[in-house]
């Protein structure tokens, strides 16, 4: 169940408990699963328990994939139930660390914004943009919320447009402009008796909803299963019946790239790759009461990995390493025929 689903239809406490149990079954995915569980607890207004989940991750002996994201979420949660000083201290720590992931920057800046610390929010968004986007020819999708958030806060502060704001305008795909969406006077139109003003506000809200829906859809990609060479050898040795599915590792890699390009050409959005391991696959097969040698399990396994947050977006960003693990850039490897 998605954490953004309305509380009217979801027992968030039950979902948090389910995700915690799942994290116990898949410790390699505990970070992603427990973050979802904490989100459900926040929606259930059990913020102290959510903080306990963040603390559990931060104190874990297993290194986190994104510790600054966990710290940022903890800070935002703490501030919501009265721990302002501790939240601000964590936020300053995140800013000082200058993470390369845009998400922690956005979370701490929006937390400052939501508590009317607009100047600090603007400075945080600006630091993020400078750190992540200086000399970057094309802003990656993940950095768009940095620019949009910065534009919004600067509009509220009445600051003039600068180069970052102009870039945000060009990246914004909604039919309603950012200036209109971020107009501080919009709140007054909600109490207007003028049908034209109300209709315009409905159009703006629909545009915002479309943007949010697009963003929410991205963590759940259409994922294709990838086996590293050593894992594929182990898989086929244990389950020879899968040789028909995977004649060779080279053909497997070529099939992945070809399938993804076909999906992209057909207009399928939000594509990704998940990497399998034999122990994980065997555990999945056991949970399904099926044999790992059954090829029909492979797409289900890929979908399960994607739902557990294991997917990597395809195609890789410009200059990034190829998804196959060769060590070369994507443009020099499987992306060379683009």
Give the topology, please.
Elements: H1 12-25, H2 30-43, H3 47-58, H4 67-80, H5 84-97, H6 102-114, H7 118-133, H8 144-157, H9 163-171, H10 178-181, H11 186-189, H12 195-217, E1 222-226, H13 229-238, H14 249-265, E2 271-275, H15 278-287, H16 297-307, E3 312-313
Helix pairs in contact: 1-2, 2-3, 3-4, 4-5, 4-6, 6-7, 6-8, 7-8, 8-9
Unreliably modeled segments: 1-7, 212-219
How big a fraction of the residues is strand? under 5%
Strand order of the largest sheet: 1-2-3
Please bin the fraction of helical residues: 55-70%
CA-CA gap between termini: 37 Å
Rg on CA atoms, Å:
22 Å
Q: Mean pLDDT across all residues, rounded?
A: 85
Structural class determined from secondary elements: mainly alpha
Gross morphology is globular
Describe the sheet with the most strands. Answer: 3 strands, mixed
Number of helices: 16
Order of helices and strands: HHHHHHHHHHHHEHHEHHE
β-strand number = 3
Question: How would you describe this structure in keywords?
Answer:
single chain, 338 residues, mainly alpha, 3-stranded mixed β-sheet, 3 strands, 59% helix, disordered N terminus
Note down, in words, how this protein is organized:
The chain is mostly helical. It is built from 16 helices and 3 strands. The chain has a 3-stranded mixed sheet, sandwiched between helices. Helix 6 (102-114) runs parallel beside helix 8 (144-157). It is globular. The model is unreliable at 1-7 and 212-219 (pLDDT under 50).
